[in-house]
Design brief:
seven-stranded parallel sheet, Rossmann fold, six-stranded parallel sheet, globular
Length: about 400
């Protein structure tokens, strides 16, 4: 998919590499929208996985280029090297016809080839690191970029770069704090009772199974202890039929979906969230102020999800439960404790506000503009831009 748009030579061009996962794509799209509204031309570089997600950006005149997905694996290092080189060559070919003044990588090995291929003349490169433990790809490219933008302050000393700036995590404008009326509105939009406690369970695209199964094994106890509990369960594709059937067999009503495109409604409806601890979903829940029980994905690179969750728990913003010691009794006990303890949830909500940087996308975009296009006369006042 390649959405063509006439590119004026006078219009600053920014290439944003944000492929590999929604956790890279959506923050990259948030920055892209800021830059586009400021007057930049944008090319999003994604993998085949993001084609359907890109439609929203493409409708706004943002162009899309696809590169081979590059996933690091010691067992398949030769395949990784081949795909990395293919992406690098394709990026160089792109830069032979397009002449960006800035290239931004949002992390992951699918973005690294584009950042490394960035022109050395009249172009500055940047990366954003969303996790508390920087990923291998960002550690590789950090010494070669102009600025590293950072979500977790703990990761600052772990990146070797000439310039580092803590900006927070860019989040789409549709995620915003919700008050009591907003919560009720979200529940009604989903066909739920606006006045009943609601649990949102989601495991993400890469780690849903263990969370699906702990919820499956705990749901009967949960409903026994709290009969009015409403459940929204996002299972991912692989477990959808099994989990939906398990609710039906137990006679328990639940809103079960493989995936939900309007995540702001699902989160906004929730009294409590059970999820993994990827950086993007953490930032979204922090923005909306919804307390979470975090179950880090044990197989995440460098165990970064554990350290993400630990950072949130340390400030009182979330509760961390380790997957390898988790049982239905432990899970049920913690969920019920938080659902019944409004004061604890309010304290968590207050702590979450410390993790929410509303202007993160704007900060990243403004830094790119000031470093790369200081004389272009671009408008960085986004106060009146539309919410998309």
């Amino acid at each position: 998919m390649n959405i063509k748009m006439e590119n004026s030579k006078k219009t600053p061009l920014v290439v944003i590499a944000c492929g590999g996962s929604g956790g890279h794509f959506y923050p990259g799209l948030s920055v892209a929208r800021k830059l586009y509204n400021a007057g930049c031309d944008i090319i999003l570089v994604v993998t085949e996985k993001e084609v359907d997600q890109v439609v929203t950006g493409a409708e706004q005149g943002i162009r899309v280029e696809r590169m081979p997905a590059v996933g690091f694996s010691k067992e398949h290092f030769f395949r990784f090297f081949i795909n990395f080189f293919k992406s690098y060559r394709k990026a160089r070919k792109l830069f032979a016809t397009e002449h960006p003044g800035a290239v931004l990588g949002m992390g992951g090995f699918s973005s690294a080839p584009t950042v490394l291929a960035a022109p050395k003349k009249n172009c500055k490169s940047f990366i954003h690191e969303g996790n508390s433990i920087p990923g291998r790809a960002n550690r590789l490219v950090a010494p070669f970029v102009h600025t590293c933008f950072i979500h977790f302050p703990d990761s600052v000393p772990l990146l070797r770069s000439r310039r580092k700036l803590v900006t927070g995590m860019p989040v789409r404008e549709i995620f915003a704090p919700v008050d009591e009326d907003g919560v009720k509105g979200c529940r009604m939009a989903l066909g739920l009772n606006p006045d009943l406690p609601t649990l949102l369970v989601m495991g993400g695209s890469q780690g849903a199974r263990a969370i699906n199964h702990i919820m499956r094994d705990s749901v009967k106890k949960l409903r026994k202890k709290m009969p009015t509990l409403q459940i929204i369960h996002l299972t991912g594709k692989n477990d959808y039929a099994e989990i939906k059937r398990s609710y039906e067999n137990r006679g328990i009503q639940a809103l079960v979906k493989e995936y939900f495109s309007e995540m702001e409604l699902a989160m906004g409806a929730a009294t409590l969230i059970v999820s993994r601890s990827g950086a993007s979903s953490l930032a979204e829940s922090a923005t909306m102020g919804i307390p979470s029980i975090l179950i880090p994905l044990p197989s995440a690179a460098d165990n970064h999800q554990y350290f993400n969750a630990a950072a949130f728990e340390k400030t009182g913003a979330a509760v961390l439960l380790k997957q390898d010691t988790l049982t239905p009794d432990i899970f049920t006990g913690k969920v019920i404790e938080l659902l019944r303890n409004k004061n604890q949830r309010l304290a968590m909500k207050k702590a979450l506000s410390e993790w929410h940087e509303q202007e993160a996308a704007g900060m990243v975009a403004k830094q790119i503009i000031e470093a790369s296009f200081p004389d272009a006369g671009l408008n960085t006042d986004w106060s009146n831009e539309p919410i998309l």
